[in-house]
Fold this sequence. Notes:
Structural class: alpha/beta
CATH superfamily of the domain at 62-266: Glycoside hydrolase/deacetylase
Shape: globular
Order of helices and strands: EEHEHEHEHEHEHEHEEHH
Number of strands: 10
Helix content: 40-55%
CATH topology of the domain at 62-266: TIM Barrel
Low-confidence stretches: 1-19
Distance between the termini: 43 Å
CATH class of the domain at 62-266: Alpha Beta
Mean pLDDT: 87
Largest sheet: 6 strands, parallel
Amino acid sequence: MQTPANGNLSSQGQTVTAVDNPSARSGKAVARLLSLTKEAVILVCAALYSRYLWLTGRRFPKVVIYYHGVPARWSERFRRHMSFLAQHCNVVKPSEIHGALPVNRPTVAITFDDGFVSVEETAVPILQELNLVAGLFIPSGNLDGHPKWRMPEDSPDRGERVMGPAQLRKLDTQGFEIGSHSLSHVELASLGDEQLQIELTRSKQVLKEVLGHEVRAISYPHGSCDERVRRTAEQSGYRFGFTIEPEPVDASCPSLLIGRVAVSPEDSLFKFRLKATGAYQVHKHLMSLKRVATVPLRRIRAGR
């Protein structure tokens, strides 16, 4: 008997869905509470870290932010995000962030992963109105169609479409930077050497055919990048590579391992300001503390 896509079969052959299962509902509620608690802790720590940066003279960092889709229902909040950048930050293209010279305000590059149509429809008009530049990273094997890669069931991007060639050419001529997001949005570090080479080079070739010129940058899907991926990207002709780690962008940062901070059009302006001004780099310090703190616990468990 085939198991329904939205449920499981009980031993009596009856479908038990998450909606009918109190345990599943309770588990989702607990997971949601834990997620909200984690977000609140990070927000508080970021606010404190922002003050620390200010007091230690590191008020004007270089930061790359990245969105995915920008649904129309969040257009006004997205506008507030961009208005803040236009008024208080030095906004540069992604290809310029690594070599940007310090100025007396934060330097920010805006990027969008996946090339969703909602970015063209909602974000681009606002960016153009405010004279802001941005970069878009495209999974070139998925042009003009719904995403073929796996997404979480609750992802707000499940109903999105990837832009087609005509849309990309238009944005390219309007000054937006188009880069690769691999061919099929796969975890690059999990691939063998031959398939990795195909994902990187073929994506580059497809975008060159669409745009009429080479692309120089790649955003690693799922943040999946190790030394082998970085080296292969360099050999494939990429000059800039972007991760999803909230690392600071400075002279010590390799140009193929530029960190980025995840943002959402749903973010409050307060949270967005902290992200855009470098305060969410505290997340890497929190993760380091978490790893150190869990070592004694693991030893205790191992001794049982």
